[in-house]
Write the C-alpha cells for this entry.
Amino acid sequence: MNIWKISLKNIKSKPIYTFLSIFILALSIALLLGVRQLEASFKYQMQNNLGEIDLVIGAKGSPLQLILASVLHMDNPTGNILYEDAKKISKSPFVKTAVPISYGDNYKGYKIVGTTNEFAKLYNAKLEKGRAIKKSMEVILGSIVAEQLQLKIGDAFLSSHGLVENDMHVHPEHLIVVGVYQSTNKIIDRLIVTNLESIWDVHHQENEHEENKNYLEHHEKGKEITSLLVSFRSPSALLTLPRRINENTNMQAALPKYELDKLYQYTGIGFKTISWIGYMILIISCITIFISLYKMVKERAFDLALLRTYGASNFQLIRMIAYEGLIIGFFAFFLGFIVLKTGLYFMFKSIETEYQQNILQKIPLQEFLQIGGVVVITIILSVLLAIYPIIKMNISTTLSNEK
C-alpha cells in the first residue's frame, strides 16, 4: 500500500479546500517572514552603519533628519554649518575624532561626499585598488558604485548638483577616479568619496558665474560643511557636550543611537501589528486545514474502514492524513516564499532607485527556522484534531451503516 499516492489522490479530490488551505497558510507565512526580514534589515542598517559615530553635529532642524542624512545618507541635510565652528568643537577634550562631511552633488544618483581620510576609518574601509586622494577633484569609489557604474581608475566624470540624478545642472569640472574601496557591506560602499577641497572648488567655480554681489555674500559666510561626525573620548562626554552645543551655539548635536532607537520604537509598533495579523491568519489557516482533513475523514469513513479490513493499521491511516497536511504545508511554504520575494522586490524597487542602494538583508536563519517550526506545529495540531474519528472508528459499525 503506497500511502503517499493515496494522500495525493485525496488532495486532488478536493481542489477547492486544498487551494484555500495552501493560499491562507502561504499568506500568513509571507507576512511573518516579511516582517522578520524588514525588521532584520532595519536593525542592520542602524547598527552596521553607525560605526564609531557617537554624535552628529549639523544645522538646526530635525535631529532624526540630521542622522538619516549624515549617517545613513537617506534624507536631505538640514543645512550647512561653518567649518570654522566645527573645527573649534573638534578641539574639545571630550572628542576623540571629528570627521567633517560635505555633500550636495551626485553622479548618476550616487552621492559625492567631501571629507577627510578619517572617514574611511569609521567604516574600516580599505583600498582594494588605487591610491589615496592627494589633491582636489580626485575621488575614491565605494565597491557598489564601481561595480554598478563600471568605473575604473583613471576614468573621469562630471557631477550634478543635488542628491538626485539630473541633467539640468551639471558641473563643468571633471572628477578623476584614483581608487576603489573594498566591500564593507556598509553605507560607504554606495558613496563616492573625495576631499573637502573638491566640494568647495566645484561650488566656488559655480559661484563665479553668478552676480558679483551673490559671490561676495557667499564668501563672507566662509567655508561650510554639512555635518561633523564625532567619536567620544569617554562616555562622560555624552552628558555634557551635546547639551553645551545645543544651548550655546547655532548648531545642533544629535545622538544617532538615541534617535535611531526612538525611530525603531515607532516602527516596532507596526512590525508587531503586522506580526499579530500574520499569526491570526495562521490560526485561520490551521482551522481551514483541520476542516479539510476532518471533512475528508468523515466523507471517506467507509473507504478507511475498508482499508482496515484489508490489513491497514490505524497508524497507516494516520500517516495518510499526516502526509496530506505535510504536502499542504510544503506547497504553502513554497508559495509563501515566492509571494514574499515578489512583494519585497516591488516594495524596495522605488527605494533602490531613489537612493541607489539595496537595504534589504537576508532573513536570519534562526527567524526562518522559528517560523518554519510554528507552521509545522500548526499542521501537526490540525492533523491531531482531524484523526480523532479514525482513532474512535468502529469498523463493523461504519461498514454496516454504509448504504
In short: The first helix runs from residue 3 to 13. The radius of gyration is 31 Å. Residues 3-46+267-401 form one domain. The chain has 15 helices and twelve strands.
